[in-house]
Specification:
- The radius of gyration is 16 Å and the shape is rod-shaped.
- The chain has one domain.
- Helix 1 packs antiparallel against helix 2.
- The protein is an all-alpha fold and about 60 residues long.
- Helix content is about 90%, strand content about 0%.
- The protein contains 2 helices and no strands.
């Protein structure tokens, strides 16, 4: 995964944490849920990129 993708995913996760905390403090459940959703999306993106990385490593190991 490129560093750009990693930074983007970390930023999305951080925004999600801020939204979740702000929603929790203010009692805004909608904002809190949006924050949790942002965090979940960032996690899924990271998992997908990790799978791609593993595929590339496997390909490199098998290819002579």
């Amino acid at each position: 995964m490129s560093n750009k993708d990693r930074a983007s995913n970390r930023a999305q996760d951080a925004k999600g944490r801020v939204k979740e905390a702000a929603g929790s403090i203010t009692g805004n459940r909608d904002l809190e849920n949006k924050g949790k959703t942002d965090q979940a999306k960032a996690g899924l993106k990271n998992a997908g990129e990790d799978l791609k990385d593993a595929g590339h490593k496997l390909k490199d190991a098998v290819t002579p």
